[in-house]
């Protein structure tokens, strides 16, 4: 995330680049401290602020903010707070604190929030145009195509209990699931990049004859080669190209190219995939006009989505 935003401060806090003191950083401890300061100013009730800040630890903060990219809502955040703080604050107060947490997220990490919304909305546009979402990296392309599932009921005979039971099966329909697509797009966008980086690190280690193992989400090697892993990790990220090119390629693949393929040459957006790879930028106003001109026909209930893209 810090790489896509070119956020040096966030890169340091997430250990993408070394910190000035050479120590391993913990981004959730940093967020916890910042959040407590924010809540003290934001919450009108000083007693509520004091109770929350005294009981807010790294575990709770991580549970609140890590799932943000998966579409975590204020309601689910309030439920998490209720689970941990129900002995101290009421259910209503949990919602108050949850709303404040989201306000903190949007103000302190505005760039991250904007990037998440952009990628999600591109996924939504693709789904609304009845197309899958494509994610590209150097070695492979991932296709995301969520369909709305319908409930199908079947009856089976339970020999043990000697009676019939109804079982519900969820069967995919032919209709694309816009909501699930929107929520999942950014998470899958990031996960694919992570998978690509992991594959390249393993490849580079094997090329030098270094043993490499995985334990959960960690790479393990022998002392002789362990220092190569972070070097290869950084090298792979640099080889991915400019962050803006990665984002523009995603927009081009899922919005511009599918429309261009169906247009006469005189109406085609004047940019190619090769132009994107060379670093050409998709002009903001041109993209807005393009989206409005070729927006999905059944958009009446979702006009607000396109206002977000503006």
Summarize the structure.
It is built from 14 helices and 6 strands. The protein is α+β, with helices and mostly antiparallel strands and about 300 residues long.
* Strand arrangement, major sheet: 1-2
Computed Rg: 23 Å
Q: Strand-residue fraction?
A: 5-15%
| Structural class computed from helices and strand pairing | alpha+beta
Q: Helicity level, as a percent range?
A: 55-70%
Q: Report how far apart the termini are.
A: 22 Å
Number of strands: 6
Catalytic activity: RNA(n) + a ribonucleoside 5'-triphosphate = RNA(n+1) + diphosphate
Keywords: DNA-directed RNA polymerase, Mitochondrion, Nucleotidyltransferase, Transcription, Transferase
Domain DNA-directed RNA polymerase C-terminal: 3-224
GO molecular function: DNA binding; DNA-directed RNA polymerase activity
Spell out the blueprint of helices and strands.
Layout: H1 2-5, H2 8-13, H3 27-42, H4 46-55, H5 58-65, H6 74-85, H7 91-108, H8 110-128, E1 133-136, E2 141-144, E3 147-158, E4 163-176, H9 178-207, E5 213-215, E6 218-220, H10 228-239, H11 243-260, H12 273-277, H13 284-293, H14 303-309
Antiparallel strand pairs: 1-2, 3-4, 5-6
Can you tell me about this structure?
This protein is an alpha+beta fold and 310 residues long. The chain folds into three domains: 107 residues, Endonuclease III, domain 1; 147 residues, no CATH class; 30 residues, no CATH class. It contains 14 helices and six strands. The strands form three sheets. Strands 1-2 form a two-stranded antiparallel sheet. Strand 1 and strand 2 form a beta hairpin. Helix 3 crosses helix 5, helix 6 packs across helix 7 and helix 8 packs across helix 9. The longest helix has 30 residues. The chain starts with a helix and ends with a helix. 20% of the residues are buried. It catalyses: RNA(n) + a ribonucleoside 5'-triphosphate = RNA(n+1) + diphosphate. Keywords: DNA-directed RNA polymerase, Mitochondrion, Nucleotidyltransferase, Transcription, Transferase. It is an enzyme of class 2 (transferase).
């Amino acid at each position: 995330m810090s790489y896509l935003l070119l956020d040096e401060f966030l890169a340091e806090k997430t250990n993408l680049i070394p910190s000035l003191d050479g120590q391993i950083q913990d981004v959730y401890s940093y967020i916890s401290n910042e959040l407590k300061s924010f809540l003290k100013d934001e919450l009108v009730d000083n007693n509520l602020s004091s109770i929350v800040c005294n009981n807010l630890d790294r575990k709770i903060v991580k549970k609140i903010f890590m799932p943000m990219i998966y579409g975590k809502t204020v309601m689910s955040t309030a439920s998490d707070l209720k689970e941990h703080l129900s002995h101290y604050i009421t259910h209503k107060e949990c919602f108050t604190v949850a709303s404040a947490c989201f306000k903190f997220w949007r103000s302190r990490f505005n760039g991250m929030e904007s990037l998440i919304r952009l990628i999600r909305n591109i996924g939504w546009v693709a789904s609304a145009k009845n197309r899958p979402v494509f994610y590209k990296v150097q070695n492979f392309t991932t296709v995301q195509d969520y369909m709305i599932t319908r409930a199908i009921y079947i009856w089976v005979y339970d020999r043990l209990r000697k009676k019939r039971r109804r079982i519900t099966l969820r069967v995919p329909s032919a209709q694309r699931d816009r909501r699930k697509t929107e929520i999942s797009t950014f998470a899958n966008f990031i996960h694919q990049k992570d998978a690509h980086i992991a594959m390249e690190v393993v490849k580079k280690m094997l090329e030098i004859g270094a043993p490499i193992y995985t334990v959960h989400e960690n790479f393990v090697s022998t002392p002789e080669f362990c220092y190569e892993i972070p070097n290869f990790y950084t090298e792979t990220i640099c080889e991915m190209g400019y962050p803006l090119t990665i984002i523009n390629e995603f927009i081009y693949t899922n919005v511009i190219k599918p429309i261009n393929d169906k247009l006469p040459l005189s109406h085609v957006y004047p940019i190619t995939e090769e132009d994107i790879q060379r670093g050409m930028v998709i002009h903001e106003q041109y993209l807005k006009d393009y989206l409005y001109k070729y927006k999905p026909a059944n958009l009446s209930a979702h006009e607000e989505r396109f206002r977000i893209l503006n």
